Amino acid sequence: MSNEEREFFLADVHVGVLGVATARNGHAPLLVPVWYRYTPGGELVVQTGRETVKAQLLRAAGRFSICVQDENPPYRYVSVEGPVTSVSDPVPPAERKAIAHRYLDPQEADSYLAATARQLTDDVAIHMRPQHWRTANFATFAAEFAGTVS
Fold first, then answer.
1. How many domains is the chain built from?
2. Per the domain annotation, does 48 fall within a domain?
3. Residue 81 lies in a domain
4. Which pLDDT band holds residue 73 (cuts at 50, 70, 90)?
5. Of 33, 43, 83, 141, which is least surrounded by CB within 10 A?
């Protein structure tokens, strides 16, 4: 993917899989699905509970990665990794609202926000500056493969 294609793909609505290193003896990196927000050229933002394992590992590692994919053929994905640049503690209400409205229709988002309002005091927003990108768009491969099937 071109730089523009990868940034717009990441900015589109996908559930991301966040990866963060762990110092826990014998454990693989933590991988968890997350809602996130990204604007091309900007920082990626995720939110989580202040005392969760995820938050503890993010503070310790100081960086994380996220991978998003299109599960429909032709398959595509973007993976980005970078440093944590800031933590908003607690998560700003506008940030929480923006992420909820990104993933849910307006009425459902408002109901979700009302039902989980106590999280405003428990959640933090973690910002990451994308630094290393990996991408794939299998459209060309799929077209070539489709041309060889008889």
1. 1
2. yes
3. yes
4. confident
5. 33
Is residue 150 in a domain? no
CA gyration radius, the chain:
17
Q: What is the pLDDT of residue 120?
A: 81
Tell me the C-alpha distance between 116 and 16, whole Å: 21
Closest by CA to 90, choosing from 114, 112, 118, 122, is: 122
Burial of 45 (0-12, 13-18, 19+ CB in 10 A): buried
| pLDDT higher than threshold 70 for residue 130 | yes
> Sign of the C-alpha dihedral, residues 114, 119, 120, 125?
negative
| CATH number of the domain where residue 104 is located | 2.30.110.10
Q: Please provide the average confidence, as pLDDT, over all residues in the chain.
A: 92
In a domain, 54, yes or no: yes
Give the residue carrying structure tokens 């996908």.
14
> Which helix or strand (DSSP H or E) is residue 77 part of?
strand 76-88
